[in-house]
Amino acid sequence: MRQRAHCEAQFRRKTGSKSCPGSTGAKSHIVRGLGNPRSLHSCSHGAGQCMSRSETERRFNRLELEAQFQGVECRRDDGMIDQISGSYKDVDQVMANQTDLVEAVHTLERVVCEGPKK
Fold first, then answer.
1. Is the entire prediction scored with pTM above 0.85?
2. Which residues pair with 7 in a beta bridge?
3. Active site includes 29?
4. How would you write 38-70 as a 3-class SS string?
5. Which residue, 25, 6, 31, 51, is CA-closest to 96?
6. Could you tell me where the DSSP H helices lie in the chain?
7. How confident is the model over 40-68, as pLDDT tens digits?
8. Distance (Å) of CA 58 to CA 53, 61, 85
9. Catalytic residue among 6, 29, 41, 45
């Protein structure tokens, strides 16, 4: 996690942009801040979860995980169920809610994911 934060900071310094990731298996965005002082020049740093990990594990199963990760190279064991897209906010809605804070520069489709460490 510390390495990821360091890479994010380096990327932001060099490009003026940052990532706004969606859930595992969903698209992400590279965004450029619009410098809105009312938000302290900040924005959402990702889609974020809309339910707890334990609730996700109760609601979803491995078959749904397989279906959602179709076309994405990643682990598909029980340890990934809490990463299913249904447990996260919709990144397109997150982006729509912050049009006064950022502009989308690039959209990245997921083809590979690391997932949580076992």
1. no
2. none
3. no
4. HHCCCCCCCCCECCCHHHHHHHCCHHHHHHHCC
5. 31
6. 2-15, 53-59, 62-68, 91-96
7. 888 888 889 999 999 999 999 999 988 88
8. 9, 8, 14
9. 45
